[in-house]
Inverse folding.
């Protein structure tokens, strides 16, 4: 089944404790992206990747890191999480045209930073 | 700045028709998307408009007027399962997606 998977789905952590949220897609998509979604705000892009070893900042990259060493995986790293990073995070992928193409979203990761 | 406006919440009755509006002010335009998002779930693609006019897809239709910076999503024969948030997103001149905050649609029996 074609899908985008994220792990973990739910995470409660404490300030400053490094964490990684994994994202994997099995559709051979070139474009991958991370978003955060907060109440009353639209989806905000954190980072995106047009292809392997190519990553770029989105609208809200501060406090986050990403890597794209393989086509299928695009992990999101929070080196020192803070409470303002409490949010719902979505990973998304699309074929090749980036945001021009339909994006397929993962199920989301709900992160709470205490 | 760039801005997408949608109503925060709308209520409609099962079997009826509802129109969800989206207005945008962006630096350039390369298309407009509508996504559906059920509570606690991922957004899923509904439609993409890049030219003016109406695109129909089953019970859902999407309209675009580039000169007015305006789009709407029309849902016909509403079903309870249509209760969800509907997200409008515009692709700007730099091919960056600008997202609206979404419209929560509540369907009543």
């Amino acid at each position: 089944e074609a899908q985008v998977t994220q792990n973990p789905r739910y995470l409660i952590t404490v300030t400053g404790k490094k964490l990684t949220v994994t994202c994997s897609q099995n559709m051979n998509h070139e474009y991958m992206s991370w978003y955060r979604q907060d109440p009353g705000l639209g989806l905000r892009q954190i980072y995106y990747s047009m292809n392997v070893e190519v990553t770029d900042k989105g609208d809200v990259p501060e406090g986050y890191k990403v890597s794209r060493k393989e086509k299928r995986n695009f992990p999101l790293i929070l080196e020192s999480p803070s409470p303002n990073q409490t949010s719902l995070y979505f990973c998304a992928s699309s074929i090749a045209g980036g945001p021009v193409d339909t994006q397929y979203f993962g199920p989301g990761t709900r992160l709470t930073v205490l | 700045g760039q801005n997408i406006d949608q109503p925060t919440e709308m209520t409609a009755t099962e079997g009826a028709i509802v129109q969800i509006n989206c207005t945008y002010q962006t630096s350039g335009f390369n298309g407009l998307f509508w996504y559906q998002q059920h509570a606690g779930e991922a957004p899923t693609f509904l439609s993409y408009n890049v030219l003016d006019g109406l695109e129909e897809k089953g019970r859902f239709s999407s309209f675009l007027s580039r000169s007015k910076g305006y789009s709407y999503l029309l849902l016909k024969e509403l079903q309870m399962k249509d209760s969800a948030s509907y997200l409008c997103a515009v692709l700007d001149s730099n091919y960056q997606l600008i997202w609206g905050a979404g419209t929560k649609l509540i369907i009543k029996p």
Remarks:
- The interface with chain B takes residues 4, 40-45, 58-59, 90, 98-100, 102-108 of chain A (CB under 8 Å).
- The mean pLDDT of chain A is 93.
